Amino acid sequence: MEVMTHSSTFLLPSNHHSSSVTYALVVLNRPLPRFTPLLWNHAQVRVCADGGANRVFDEMPLLFPSDDALDVRQRYKPDIIKGDMDSVRTEVLDFYTNLGTRVVDESHDQDTTDLHKCVAYIRDLTPNSDKSNLCILVAGALGGRFDHEAGNMNVLYRFSTMRLILLSDDCLIYLLPSTHLHEIYIQSSVEGPHCGLIPIGMPSGSTTTTGLQWDLNNTEMRFGDVDVA
């Protein structure tokens, strides 16, 4: 079985960046994680999901308190603002469009979430030859309304052939496809000490881990059972 590796080098300065990985960043309408500038600098394309543009406009200058706010907003300009446009403020749209940001209004589509729209856009933007190296980082995906969180996790399953990572200040979540063995390389300076494996979507017939404080050995897991690692 093919091995899939996972490493959060995007949480480290750019000189640690692996040239084999192409990152895209999606910013949702939740408070920005403190490490958002690192994600921004690693990304090749930055997409704000609707009200996520408000967050970049309002909160990115707060991460650089000694810098001029206008300068910060000009430095951290999203490439695309996409969604149903029910949250982004008019003055924010005007500011970024004047800087060259592309706005994609999908208010006609009320059957998918803004995150779904953004991920589909990045997928369609990426040539097939590059998709295996693509990793989509989603900032502000956790916290707030539970139905929004659940919708964001559902996107992991809707795009299960792609690498997506949901991020907040204290968590990162990704899907481990059953088609692969998985090696997770911890950046101990910025990650840990906790790791959870949750069999959402389908049971895990046999899970074996190495490197955890309490490893699993050929363990069956299913959502709803008492023992969930």
TrEMBL record:
Domain of life: Eukaryota
Protein name (record): Uncharacterized protein
Provenance organism: Populus alba (White poplar)
Origin organism lineage: Eukaryota, Viridiplantae, Streptophyta, Embryophyta, Tracheophyta
